[in-house]
Amino acid sequence: MTTVITRFPPSPTGHLHVGGARTALFNWLWARKNSGRFTLRIEDTDAARSSEEMTQGILDGMRWLGLDWDEGPYYQSRRIDLYNEYIDRLLQTGHAYYCACTPEEVEAMRTQARASGAVPKYNGRCRDKGLTSGPGRVVRFKAPLSGETGFLDLVKGPISVPNTQLDDMVLRRLDGMPTYNLAVVVDDVTMNMTHIIRGDDHLSNTPKQVLLYEALGRPLPQFGHVPMILGPDKKKLSKRHGATSVTAYRDLGYLPEAMVNYLVRLGWSHGDQEIFSLDELLTHFSLEHLGSSACVFDQSKLLWLNAHYIKSESPARLAGLLAEHLGRRGQPESGAAYLEAVAPLLQPRAGTMVEMAEMAEFFVAGDDELVMDEAAATKFLTAQVKEHFAVLHFLLRDAPGFDQAALEALFTRYLEGKGVAFKILAQPLRVVLTGKTKSPGLFETMEVLGRDRVLRRLANALRRME
RNA sequence: GUCCCCAUCGUCUAGUGGCCUAGGACGCUGGCCUCUCACGCCGGUAACGGGGGUUCAAAUCCCCCUGGGGACGCCA
Predict the structure, then answer these.
(1) Rounded distance, CA A365 to CA A25, Å?
(2) A338, A450 contact by CB (below 8 A)
(3) Structural domains for chain A
């Protein structure tokens, strides 16, 4: 049994977007599930469009998702000699040749072919000229003129394309850099890849790569092409559709496990199961259940999953995240213990950590800086409730206990004595303590706020109602 | 234009010839719970693109059509 080796080869010309993250996840899962190795490779042969900053962003995204790699990151830009070795070999074995045509000439061939309804491709003018190395010359692959090239795809099944569709692709550019197709094949061969799981958009590249494997005399790895992720308009997902990079979701307050869970279910399924722990993913993930049709990125389902994970996450971890987001919103620092007490009240209510931070503001705001919903204050802080609050202030001050149960008992006793329903006082009290008309339950809120804050906010309200 | 791929509720999907008058989940929606908002619970809405075959039997297999996506770079 050979060791499973997979890879994720992003091009550092953009962020780690959700589509890339999903293929990375699939490759990672497959390697981990089979106790194999997962390799990271940076495809930066396009020097002009690649940047170190993008590379770091991609690595950050990977780490955030928890997709650790066993090898790499390898940089293609540092492996040029290796690629040249292989190109020379192809030249020697007659699988490649030098071509002196300029990009403009090639472009003209394509437009001409297109105009006459033919396949737009290089016409092979230098194919049999026997040109040797020289300035202004690229190296092209000598592709078969007839026949078919095919392979068995893990998700799509048998794929085959007439060779007349393929042209003599460039292997080495004018600037001496290898092209993508050559570099991937050389890398995948030398790094011993066993499985190549990648986006559907590479499907039509694969026959060209298959030809290269054959020319090199190397066995094919297993290819698996997963369908694309589309936007709600069913077009290829792009910035137009809103957040597409995984780090954007992190900043929006999504939990990595929610992202992973959402992504894995996009194109893969295990019966009716929706929620997967990492362990479950590792035991259940399979290539056979990868879907074969494109899917739409559905933000609302991601949000639901995130809410789910927030509910089940430990208050301690949430407190850390909460502090971070609160800080970002310019709120003063609060103790970890306090935030850890706040979190459970907000967990069932927050869809994202950004939302939780927003809801947590009244907990951490200074009593005098509490943002008051004025309309609500006018509506609820009436003369009638003022009398009650005045008494309640004393009762709360002298209450022996300040926990939820004690508070509830205190209120019940008071209300029964006055013959008043809690409903009458609930909203006014909520506005006084939180500044808003929506909040967690009053008794738990008071317990967490603590006696001092409650008393000060009550006193402030009393003063206001003078 | 050519080639390749795809096709079940609005969305993600289950379904591998009979268990399907098509199941789950998100969303939307009715109700319950209730100090507000949520959570939760119960219920509802909604799909096999069309046409031909094959078969005793088709969402499932084959063909055509239609629709969608992708690729045709000295980008990856």
Answers:
(1) 40
(2) no
(3) 5-77+228-299 (3.40.50.620), 79-226 (3.40.50.620), 314-364 (1.10.8.70), 374-464 (1.10.10.350)
- Residues of A marked active site are found at 239
Distance A348 CA to B43 C1' (A): 23
Dihedral (Cα; A425, A430, A432, A437), 10-degree rounding: -120
Does nucleic acid strand B have an atom less than 7 angstroms from the CB of A265? yes
Query: Which among A89, A62, A67, A51 has a CA at the least distance from the CA of A185?
Result: A89
Q: Tens digit of pLDDT for each residue in A357-407?
A: 999 999 999 999 989 998 988 888 888 888 999 999 999 999 898 999 999
Distances in Å between the alpha carbon of A173 and those of A86, A99, A169, A183, A212? Answer: 14, 10, 10, 12, 17
Owner of token pair 């981990």: A32
Chain B nucleotides with an atom closer than 7 Å to a protein C-beta: 1-8, 10-16, 23-27, 35-40, 68-76
The CA–CA distances, whole Å, from A28 to A60, A63, A115, A255, A285 equal 16, 12, 45, 19, 11
**pLDDT tens digits for A121-172?**
999 999 999 899 989 999 999 999 999 999 999 999 999 999 999 999 999 9
| Amino acid, single-letter form, for residue A374 | E
- Integer Cα distance of A70 and A51 in angstroms: 23
Is A102 within 7 A of strand B by CB distance?
A: yes
